[in-house]
Amino acid sequence: xxxxxxxxxxxxxxxxxxxxxxxxxxxxxxxxxxxxxxxxxxxxxxxxxxxxxxxxxxxxxxxxxxxxxxxxxxxxxxxxxxxxxxxxxxxxxxxxxxxxxxxxxxxxxxxxxxxxxxxxxxxxxxxxxxxxxxxxxxxxxxxxxxxxxxxxxxxxxxx
Length: 159
Description:
Blueprint: H1 2-66, H2 72-100, H3 102-124, H4 130-141, H5 151-155
Helix pairs in contact: 1-2, 1-3, 1-4, 3-4
């Protein structure tokens, strides 16, 4: 009987680690994309406003003449508008990442996965009681409420 409980606990840990792996597989690229979008958009915004800011009217007049525009104010407007759009994209990407706290969540999920791997080893070699493993398991998974619990674990009740 005790061996069956330990096996069920080992299976539960393995399923939970699988859900953590799935979470990390989806979240790491999303976090990287948002960071990249923010950095590139910020740089584009800076480049778009640098010409008018540093070159002034002569820059705007030169660009306007090269594009065949009758007035340099159109150049200023277009560059400022594009700079604003790029800045807006950077702000949105940064705030999406911060609102979901992706770097902290990814770090927490990685740490819990490592803890659960150690717990599997303890359980496998019988170095700790089943009750202690259950308590440790519950403590570990409580740190990652944002990682979905596998459906088969929910259906069978809590550990």
